[in-house]
TrEMBL record:
It is found in: Cell membrane. The keyword Transferase applies. It comes from Bradyrhizobium ontarionense. This is Probable peptidoglycan glycosyltransferase FtsW. It comes from the Bacteria. Its main location: membrane. Keywords: Cell cycle, Cell division, Cell membrane, Cell shape, Cell wall biogenesis/degradation, Glycosyltransferase, Membrane, Peptidoglycan synthesis, Transferase, Transmembrane, Transmembrane helix. Pathway: Cell wall biogenesis; peptidoglycan biosynthesis. It catalyses: [GlcNAc-(1->4)-Mur2Ac(oyl-L-Ala-gamma-D-Glu-L-Lys-D-Ala-D-Ala)](n)-di-trans,octa-cis-undecaprenyl diphosphate + beta-D-GlcNAc-(1->4)-Mur2Ac(oyl-L-Ala-gamma-D-Glu-L-Lys-D-Ala-D-Ala)-di-trans,octa-cis-undecaprenyl diphosphate = [GlcNAc-(1->4)-Mur2Ac(oyl-L-Ala-gamma-D-Glu-L-Lys-D-Ala-D-Ala)](n+1)-di-trans,octa-cis-undecaprenyl diphosphate + di-trans,octa-cis-undecaprenyl diphosphate + H(+). The chain crosses the membrane at residues 21-39, 59-76, 83-102, 114-137, 146-163, 169-186, 191-211, 265-291, 303-322, 342-361. Pfam families: FTSW_RODA_SPOVE (PF01098). It is a multi-pass membrane protein. The keyword Metal-binding does not apply. InterPro entries: FtsW, FtsW/RodA.
Length: 383
């Protein structure tokens, strides 16, 4: 057992990390393992793979993800800023390479293969982007003469432009919502927030007019008779079949025909086999992680830690909300993973990086440490 009197990195981490938050994240990972075992075998069998192909890979991805999560949670705020800037720069380069040489799948270029590993660079860009923008907003609040807000807007336009070129409008909307939330939290005037919302709405309308598959999804959502709604209809049937307590592990019907039962529609599989009770438990876990992080963030006096932790929590929560809403047919279908539950290597590792930063930023640090790693130190390190 680690003693409070011991002065080493492991002891300091153990007595300062938010244990309820860490426990909730690990519980979510465990739920992901169970649901991957329930949802993925029929998909693997349909495409001629070993029944446990996706499950084995899901567990394999969790191992480096856990290492990343714990390792990043040891970092100081200054180290988090530096790592986020480096990860964001690498992710941008990889996105550009993906657009240039990545394979086209269903009209999109989102993946690139490096050293035999498929990488979706936009996943890694999200948490790093949030932290970099949080740093800029904290500097803008501390030094109004610094054009930090302009720089944050420039980074937003750059990332959004690259995502639109893939195209990936779901990630684009997610990034815009998180950036707008941070913009509001940083104390910017409502007129600017309203302007951003209007620009996002105009962009969505432009995508509806100019991009056929976006228009198709919106039309099918508004009028199901206008096209193929097999996946969302099957997902809704799964909720109805499962009821409150589910059909039982392995007894689900929807996963036998849903092409994306292990990714986009794993929540529906959970509802059918384990019931609405489990779904409510999952929603409670997501809500607890977000609310706990926000409450801890607003208890800190360091503006950067407050903005960054809040932005990461909002990113995590909105992504989960989008996936669940698609499963419940509340919004048009969009390929968005359910954090730590859906299958996907890039998604799980990137989420672990983001959640690791959440844990690091919400650790209980003495005031002297916060001041020593404050914004002035960060400016000197980037100078």
């Amino acid at each position: 057992m680690l003693s409070r009197e011991e002065r080493n990195p492991l002891s300091d981490w153990w007595w300062t990390v938010d244990k309820p938050l860490l426990g909730s994240i690990l519980a979510l990972m465990l739920c992901g393992v169970i649901l991957s075992l329930a949802a993925s075998p029929p998909v693997a069998t349909r495409i001629g793979l070993d029944p446990f192909h996706f499950f084995n890979r899901h567990v394999l991805f969790l191992l480096p993800s856990f290492i990343v999560l714990i390792g990043v949670s040891f970092l100081s705020p200054r180290q988090i800023r530096r790592s986020a800037l480096l990860v964001f720069a690498i992710a941008i380069v990889l996105i550009v390479l993906t657009l240039a040489i990545g394979p086209e799948v269903k009209g999109s270029r989102r993946w690139i293969t490096l050293v035999g590993v498929n990488i979706q660079a936009s996943e890694a860009a999200k948490p790093a982007f949030v932290v970099v923008v949080a740093w800029l907003f904290s500097e803008s609040a501390r030094r109004p003469d610094m054009p930090a807000t302009t720089m944050a807007l420039a980074l937003l336009l750059m990332l959004v432009s690259l995502l639109v070129m893939e195209p990936d409008f779901g990630q684009t909307m997610l990034i815009l919502m998180v950036w707008g939330s941070l913009f509001f939290i940083a104390g910017m005037r409502m007129i600017w927030v309203a302007g951003l919302a209007s620009a996002a709405a105009a962009g969505l309308f432009g995508a509806y007019l100019l991009v056929p598959h976006v228009a198709g999804r919106i039309k099918r959502f508004m009028n199901p008779a206008s096209g193929d709604t097999f996946q969302v209809d099957t997902a809704m049937e799964a909720f109805s079949n499962g009821g409150w307590f589910g059909l039982g592990p392995g007894e689900g019907i929807a996963k036998r025909s849903l092409p994306d039962s292990h990714t986009d529609f794993v929540f529906a599989v959970a509802a059918e086999e384990f019931g609405i009770i489990l779904c409510l438990a999952l929603v409670t876990l997501f809500a607890f992680i977000v609310i706990r992080t926000l409450s801890r963030a607003y208890a800190t006096e360091d503006a950067f830690s407050r903005f960054a932790a809040s932005g990461l929590a909002i990113l995590f929560g909105i992504q989960a909300a989008i996936n669940i809403s698609v499963n419940l047919q509340l919004i048009p279908a969009k390929g968005m993973t359910l954090p730590f539950v859906s299958y996907g290597g890039s998604s799980i590792v990137s989420l672990a990086y983001g959640v690791g930063m959440m844990l690091a930023l919400t650790r209980q640090r003495p005031r002297i440490e916060i001041e020593a790693t404050g914004a002035a130190g960060a400016l000197r390190s980037y100078a």
